[in-house]
Design brief:
about 350 residues, alpha+beta, 2 domains, five-stranded mixed beta sheet, about 35% strand
């Protein structure tokens, strides 16, 4: 795999860049201490994350030694069917009951790039999620893909998970035989995702650190939590200086893409000019939780606006999203970034607003 990033809007800009190496009513919440970041999963859903010097193979062998049936799920945080399977296993009563006898080991192929692809002999996880029922020695009994389980229907998913645990290949979901049923299930799934996303505030901010500025005012390091209730990907923009609020037609002197060092592909766009601002991509029905982005507040000012955009255009072309955009991004060390590319003096920049979110800093 290669690092997939947002495309520059024109070949000339790309060449130049490569040379330069709601207040509660709006759902906005501001607090001073971030809550725990731990994800909640069903008891039998285990994520094999990197920790210390432990290898994937050693973590894998420890799980096999527990003596329960094991199903490996090779996944990635940008994979939509992976998200659907994870949601079923964590939240759906039928699927949770069917899955209870086994342990589901989720292995992120980006986090474990290399070791993941060679973990199980004869299994090279190129399509995701790749789901493998293994025996007590870790040898594959049944290998399939997530879509084979019938992820539009809890009944189909539960039935096929039972089959996997029994060492049997999944059966084709009944809904695939009728396009109308498939369509209705897809519409219902879309409605569920919208409803779930709308339970989260679109923007919340939490203060991590305040630093006095020499000329007066305060530089605030924030934890920014974003939720996208739309199925379309969105950019969320935040000013870098609250004294210079966002503009739909900013005068950009330089823009660049920065990669967060703790993640293999997650990035943020930084625009310098009048005004300067951050542009954070958020997946459809997705979220981004980023700690470490900064904003300057002038004396006695404690509020600013964050915008969710319908589009972000530089020159004549909308800025393209990275192909593999994480659907639930969490960045704990957002101040640690590297420059992927930088481009100066771009043509006209245009921001089309979908939603405005007022924010107050305590």
């Amino acid at each position: 795999m290669h690092l997939s990033t947002m495309r520059l809007p024109s070949p000339s800009t790309r060449r130049a860049a490569q040379k330069l190496a709601w207040l509660l009513a709006f759902g906005v919440v501001a607090t001073s201490a971030p809550p725990a970041r731990a994800e909640k999963h069903a008891a039998n859903v285990v994520w094999l994350h990197r920790a210390g010097t432990a290898t994937l193979e050693s973590l894998w062998k420890t799980e096999l030694a527990r003596g329960k049936p094991v199903i490996a799920v090779f996944t990635a945080d940008w994979c939509t069917p992976c998200k659907a399977l994870k949601t079923f296993l964590d939240d759906d009563p039928k699927v949770k009951a069917a899955a209870a006898p086994a342990r589901f080991l989720f292995i992120d192929v980006d986090e474990w790039r290399g070791p993941a692809q060679s973990l199980i002999a004869g299994v090279n996880a190129q399509m995701l999620p790749t789901v493998v029922r293994v025996d007590a020695q870790g040898k594959p009994l049944v290998t399939c893909f997530g879509t084979d389980l019938g992820l539009l229907s809890a009944e189909s998913a539960a039935s096929n998970i039972k089959r996997l645990i029994a060492g049997q290949a999944p059966e084709r979901p009944d809904y695939e035989k009728d396009p109308n049923v498939s369509r209705d299930l897809a519409v219902a799934d879309n409605a569920r995702q919208i409803a779930k996303a709308k339970t989260r505030p679109p923007v919340s901010v939490q203060v991590l650190k305040k630093t006095a500025l020499a000329g007066g005012g305060t530089r605030v390091s924030l934890r920014l939590q974003l939720s996208n209730a739309s199925g379309a990907r969105r950019f969320v923009v935040m000013p870098k200086d609250a004294a210079k609020p966002l503009s739909q037609n900013p005068k950009v002197a330089l823009w660049r893409e920065l990669r967060f060092t703790e993640h293999v592909r997650a990035t943020v766009l930084e625009f310098e000019g009048e005004p300067a601002f951050w542009a954070i991509p958020v997946a459809g029905f997705g979220s981004a939780d980023i700690a470490g982005l900064e904003i300057d507040l002038p004396p006695r000012q404690t509020s600013f606006e964050v915008w969710t955009l319908a589009s972000l255009t530089v020159g004549t072309a909308p800025v393209q999203f990275q192909k593999k955009l994480p659907y639930a991004l969490t960045i704990a060390r957002g101040a640690e970034r590297t420059v992927l590319w930088s481009a100066s003096s771009p043509p006209a920049t245009s921001l089309v607003i979908a939603e405005r979110h007022p924010v107050t800093i305590p």
